[in-house]
Amino acid sequence: MIPTFNRVSTPLVQDKQPLNDHLDDQKISIAKVFHDTSRASEVKKHSSLISKLKASKQGLKEESKQVVHDRSVSSKAETGRYDQIMQACSETFGKWDSQMIQSGLRQHFLSYAASLLDANFERLAAMSDDMAKSVKCAEKPIRNELVTWLYAGGISSADETWSQQANKSHLENGLRNSVDGLPQAAKQSIVDRKKQREDDYKSLTHVANKLLDEFNLNSSEPIRTSDSKVLTSSSVSRMISDLISKHVNK
What we know:
Mean pLDDT: 78
Number of strands: 0
Number of helices: 9
Largest sheet: none
């Protein structure tokens, strides 16, 4: 799984200010909470939030130290796993011939583009019946324009290229053995093992993109799109966003 980090921002309060589970009848003094009286509006919002929490069935509860600790451990584990995947894939990638990488680079990014399109089409189609119809009409024009852009016009048929090349990335499949060979956590259940594998493969796609981005950006003769831009995962993502905005009626 690709590591993510969530940062929660909380208002500053003076040290040793008492806080119980439900705040009972405590009143928050603006002078005590903030030294800067210009932030009174923020205190008002904060006080309003506390009032809503007090009125809820669960009330306001402090997060236990154990929950904070468990989250920290989980985050470190995810980061460590991603680093393992990156290292294993980098070692394999470094052994490949540059000509082989170049020959499979466009196909990899077409495969990546196909997965992004599927996710976007599904999300948009779920919004309404009209949106679903718009997506249905836009699918083929978007795909054809995407293929023509990605292959810089060097194809005879966009439809044929899509049907033959927009499957699982061959280069990414070549890196999969490196991921499958990594050690699994001891005493995992079947469900946990399956989820671990799914998370590993999500990380693999991210790692493959990163390795191929760096390869093409540092190449003396990088592979370019029809608008003369260096082909990367970011340029693919931007192009898909532009094509959806162009063809799908929102």
